[in-house]
Every structure is written in C-alpha cells, then in structure tokens.
C-alpha cells in the first residue's frame, strides 16, 4: 500500500487546556506538516474541504498550492472537493493551476461532501445532490480533456466553444470519487473507470465494505480490465506503547468530538470510544494492535492507498503520530502489499 | 491559488490581485479564498475588485453584461460584510442564495483586509468607491492622463463630500512599463510587443477599443517606455496630476520571456525607484 496523510484542518479547542490555535498559526501548520510528511516518506498529502467553523479548509486548492511550493515529491490530494457546490469551470481552472504549480502532482477527489452547512450556504438542495454531482463531474472531465467545449445541462448555464486555461499539466488528472454512503457514487466511479476513496469513517466497517464490494462488482460489469484503484481513510490515529495509554490519551478528544454538530450530522452509531475501536476504523492502540488492524483491513478492502488523519490532536502530537506511523507501521504494510499506484508506468 | 503559492515563497511583499472579477464569482468563495491566503501569508493580501475588462468571462459565466454593475456592487458589499462580521453572517440579495447564520471562514489575519476599487472609465464607479470610502486603483494603461486626472478630481471631491477623512484616501494607478538603459533601444524593442498585444491579445479580445494601436500615440500617452530617467520623469508627471500613493508596474503585456520582464523589474528597482523617491522626498 501507499500512504497519505490527510486533514480537515479542524481548529477545535484543546480539550485539556481549552486553548484554540490562532488561525494563521493553524494554517501555517498545514504547510509545515506537509513538509514533514514528505520527509517521513508518505506518498501523499491530502486536504479536505468544509465550509464553516471549526474547519479551516474552505479553500483546499489555495492551501495545496502553498504546500506545493514547499514540497517536491509527494502527491497532493483533496479529500474531498465538494464539487456539488462549485462551478465546474472554476474547479477546472483552479485545480489546473495547482497541477502546474506542483509539476503535475495533483489527484482530485470529488464527492457530495458530508457537512450540513454547505447546503444552505451555497443553496444546494440535498435531494438533487447526486444528479448535480454526476452532471458537474461530466463537465469537469470534458473541460480538462477537450478544447472548444460546447455543453448544456441542468445545473449551469450553457457553454459554447470554451477552452479553460490553463490546460492541465498532467495528460490526465486522476479523479477519485469519495465514497461514504451511497451506491450512486460507487456506480459513477465504476462506470467511468475512476478510482474510489472510501471515507471509512464513523460507521461499522461493514457499511464501507459493502460499498467497496459494490464498486468492484460494477467495475467488472462495465468490463474494465484489472483491479480498480481504491483508497481508504482512517480518520483517527493515536499510537502509544500500550493500548491502555492510547485509549486514555484519546478519550478526551473523542468525548469532545462526539458532541459537535458535525458529528451529530454524521449520525455515527458509536457513542463509546471502545465501540469505535472495536467495530470501526479507529487506529488507536499499541503499534502491534494498529499494525494488526491495518493488516485485517487491507486483506478485506484490498485497497492500494491508506490515508491516516490526526485531526483534532495538538500539533506536537500530530507530528509525533505521523512520525511513529511512518517508522513503526508503514514499512511492514508497504512490503507486504506492494502496488504500482503513482509509479511511472514502464 | 497562485498567490497562495507565492505566499509560501515570500515573506515581506504585499500580495495583490488585479483585478478580482467579483461579478463572475461567488463572493462567499472570494471571501474564503483570500482570507486563506491572508492567513497563510501572515496578513499580506490586498484585493483589487472590478468588473473586469475582457469579454470572455461574461461568456463563460453566462451573465448578463448589463447586470455586471449590480453584481459587482452586491458582491463587494457582501464581501465587506463577511470580513467585517465578528460572527456568523445573515444576508439576502439578488445574485446568490441567502445566508442564514452562516459560518464563513477562515477569518482574514488583518483586522481589516484592504479592498481597493478598480476604476477605468465610469464615473458611477468613482462615486461608489467614494461613498463606501474605498481606495481606488486607476486602470492607467489605456487612456490619456487627463481622463484619469478627471476621475481622480471627482473621486477626491466625492470622498470628502461623503465625510471621509482625507488622510484615509488612497489612490493607485497601473502602467505598462518597459525599461532599458538606452531609451531609444527600449522604444525599439518594445514596439513588437506592443504591436502583438494590440493586434493579437488585448484588442482582439476586447469589446471597446479603449487602446490606440498607434505606437507613437501610445508612447506619448499611457505607455511608460524608455531609459530609467525617462521612465522616472513620466511617472512623476503622472504623479503630479494624480497624487497617487501606489504605482503598479505591469511589466509583461504578453509574448515576453521571463528574462525580458526581469530586466525591466531590476532596472526599475535599482535605478527608477531612487530617482522617484529623491524627487518626492521619500526614503
């Protein structure tokens, strides 16, 4: 497997001290963490998109362009770009710029998003979001792959003979589809032969497994060759020498997180941290436990990209956890499950 | 996106747009994007807003050109409201969905992120900037000194009439600048770039023919091309009329390599700026 470090740039108060970082300091840490994860040998750095406090990632293209200037190797991913609320033409322009500034290191992950406030802020009807997503995805693909695009659809004014600038740096920017709730996404991804990125968030793993299974099934149905490319997120990482220490250290963050509006909207069935650890994707425990769990997940999902997040932990812990993961966990998994994602084709 | 990248590689310079075409954009997205750059850069962003000067955006974004003024005004007022608000935003208008108790972030790092108002031809536009107390940036590159001079006079008068303190008035202007040690060499070298811009890019895509294609007339008018001494003298002549605080140097009108533009920028910084500062008695 390959590894990505991902963040939704949650600027929440430290549950121990109550202190909230300044926004400049917090956003500056996004860049320094990008530099760190490149040094540590991660394959990718991934920034999500949410609109409204406590998230500071309303402009992932801007943040990733800053990261691009301070890194040279790692892939730059969104996670996810909420395509439903944007004009695909602006998305085509902004991310093509990022593709150039990064020397072709962009992979775009698109989805409908999972944050309630964006419906009202951007005037999107949730009942229409799947149709909106499919239409905007189709237009974005055309704007990147064709010149002189003439197009008409339901959710944007028609275009006549339009060539967006700049053109993409890469021949074809990979577009992943973020998956967490619906077969409409797995269907859209499979139909177009695109990779899938499973949120693998705060629900029992069976739900995400079922969506991944559906995606594989539809991939075969559409006659695509080989195995599809799948990424999987792990939204909580905390390694301590023993599982007791890890659980104890994480509990205040879990208790603060589970009562936030974002968590309520999410509707997670997990209330106790132990439930999240036993039935869900939490990587909270000793190095042996975390490694063992990732082996089980990787055997089950058969994915090529593992994303880990340390969001909501204090900055010093984030740095420490990215490092422990890179040193104590990643090498074994890399060796056991090799793949050619992002490697130059021969 | 571009300024976000530049923010990561610089530490001191102000990061400005010229111009942010607000009528074609969602003001909420503009607020988010530039607040992010402001936070990343430690508070170095300044926005110049305007209706834009090229017709393509209108075709791309499918908006009625007659509405551009209303869209611009509504958009800029919303942008100012978002950045001025301490908490969530309530707003209702014509051109985007209403906002109800909306959380929009991040916050700009500067307590008041400067918004400059781009002015090229219309007096209503000067009037609006004066009413809101916004600093202005003159288009500067297309028309005669007297045209911009009249806009400046009008702006100063209206700015005072609306009761804003003269000390808070700020004016910028833009010039196409090309500097070489030898003034004749500069004028000779620049002619091809000017011809190219007028026939293939600027004029070919513009609707109104604000620019003149005549090179001699342009040199006598808005173009600032010559030796360091000539360039300084011409900018000082503009300054005598506008009394502006900020001069934008547009060194690349298209078709020029990085080296060609960099030579202008280097000569400007090392030789033109000292003459102007000495003349105006500035450090």
Q: How would you sum up the major sheet of chain A?
A: 8 strands, parallel, barrel
- Sheet of most strands of chain B: 8 strands, parallel
Count of helical stretches of chain A: 12
Radius of gyration of chain B: 20 Å
Q: Numbering strands along the chain, what is their spatial order in the largest sheet of chain A?
A: 1-2-3-5-8-9-10-13
Report strand % of chain B: 5-15%
Q: What's the N-to-C terminus distance of chain A?
A: 19 Å
Structure, described:
The complex is a heterodimer of chains A (346) and B (283). Chain A has 346 residues and is an alpha/beta fold. Chain A has twelve helices and 13 strands. In chain A, the strands form three sheets. Chain A has an eight-stranded parallel beta barrel with strand order 1-2-3-5-8-9-10-13, surrounded by six helices. A two-stranded antiparallel sheet of chain A has the order 6-7. In chain A, helix 2 packs parallel to helix 3, helix 3 crosses helix 5 and helix 6 runs parallel beside helix 7. The two termini of chain A are 19 Å apart. Chain B has 283 residues and is of the alpha/beta class. Chain B is 49% helix and 15% strand. Chain B has ten helices and ten strands. In chain B, strands 1, 2, 3, 6, 7, 8, 9 and 10 form an eight-stranded parallel β-sheet that branches. In chain B, strands 4-5 form a two-stranded antiparallel sheet. In chain B, helix 5 runs parallel beside helix 6 and helix 9 packs across helix 10. In chain B, 43% of the residues are buried.
């Amino acid at each position: 497997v390959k590894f990505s470090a991902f963040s939704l740039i949650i600027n929440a108060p430290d549950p121990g001290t109550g202190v909230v970082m300044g926004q400049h300091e917090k956003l500056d840490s996004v860049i320094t963490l990008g530099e760190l994860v490149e040094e540590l040998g991660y394959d990718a750095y991934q920034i999500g998109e949410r609109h409204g406090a406590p998230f500071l990632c309303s402009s992932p293209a801007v943040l990733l362009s800053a990261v691009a200037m301070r890194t040279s190797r790692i892939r730059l991913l969104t996670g996810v770009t909420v395509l439903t609320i944007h004009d695909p033409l602006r998305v085509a322009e902004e991310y093509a710029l990022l593709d150039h500034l990064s020397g072709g290191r962009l992979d775009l992950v698109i989805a409908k998003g999972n944050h309630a406030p964006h419906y009202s802020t951007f005037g999107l009807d949730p009942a229409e979001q799947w149709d909106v997503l499919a239409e905007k995805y189709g237009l974005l693909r055309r704007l990147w792959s064709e010149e002189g695009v003439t197009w008409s659809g339901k959710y944007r004014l028609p275009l006549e003979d339009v060539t967006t600038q700049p053109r993409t740096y890469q021949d074809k920017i990979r577009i992943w589809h973020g998956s967490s709730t619906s077969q409409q996404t797995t269907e859209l991804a499979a139909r177009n032969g695109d990779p899938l990125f499973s949120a693998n968030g705060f629900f029992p793993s069976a739900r995400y497994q079922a969506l991944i299974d559906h995606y594989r099934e539809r991939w075969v149905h559409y006659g695509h060759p080989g195995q599809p490319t799948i990424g999987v997120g792990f939204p909580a990482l905390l390694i301590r020498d023993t599982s007791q220490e890890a659980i104890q250290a994480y509990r205040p963050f879990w208790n603060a997180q589970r009562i936030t509006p974002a968590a309520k909207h999410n509707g997670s069935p997990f209330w106790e941290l132990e439930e999240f650890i036993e039935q869900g994707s939490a990587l909270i425990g000793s190095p042996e436990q975390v490694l063992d769990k990732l082996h089980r997940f990787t055997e089950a999902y058969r994915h090529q990209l593992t994303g880990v997040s340390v969001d909501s932990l204090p900055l010093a812990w984030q740095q420490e956890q990215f490092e422990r993961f890179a040193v104590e966990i990643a090498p074994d998994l890399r060796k056991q499950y090799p793949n050619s994602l992002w490697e130059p084709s021969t | 996106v571009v300024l976000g990248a530049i923010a990561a590689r610089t530490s001191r310079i102000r990061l400005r747009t010229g111009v942010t075409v607000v009528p074609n954009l969602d003001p909420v997205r503009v607020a988010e994007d530039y607040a992010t750059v402001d936070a990343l850069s430690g508070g170095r962003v300044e926005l110049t807003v305007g209706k834009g000067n090229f017709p393509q955006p209108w075709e791309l974004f499918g908006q009625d050109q007659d509405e551009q003024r209303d869209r611009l005004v509504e958009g800029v007022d919303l942008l100012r409201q978002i950045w001025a608000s301490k908490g969530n935003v309530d707003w209702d208008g014509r051109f985007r969905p209403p906002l109800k108790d909306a959380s929009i972030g991040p916050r700009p790092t500067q307590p008041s992120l400067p918004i400059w108002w781009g002015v090229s031809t219309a007096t209503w536009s000067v009037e609006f900037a004066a009413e809101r107390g916004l600093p202005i940036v003159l288009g500067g590159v297309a028309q005669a000194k007297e045209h911009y001079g009249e806009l400046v006079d009008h702006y100063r008068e209206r700015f005072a009439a609306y009761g804003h303190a003269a000390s808070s008035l700020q004016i910028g202007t833009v010039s196409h600048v090309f500097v070489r040690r030898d003034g004749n060499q500069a004028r000779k070298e620049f002619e091809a770039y000017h011809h190219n811009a007028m026939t293939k890019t600027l004029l070919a895509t513009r609707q109104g023919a604000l620019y003149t294609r005549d090179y001699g007339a342009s040199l006598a008018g808005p173009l600032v091309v010559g030796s360091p001494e000539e360039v300084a003298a011409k900018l000082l002549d503009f300054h005598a009329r506008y009394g502006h605080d900020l001069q934008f140097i547009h060194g690349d009108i298209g078709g020029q390599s990085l080296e060609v533009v960099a030579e202008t920028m280097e000569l400007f910084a090392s030789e033109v700026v000292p003459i102007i500062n000495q003349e105006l008695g500035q450090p």
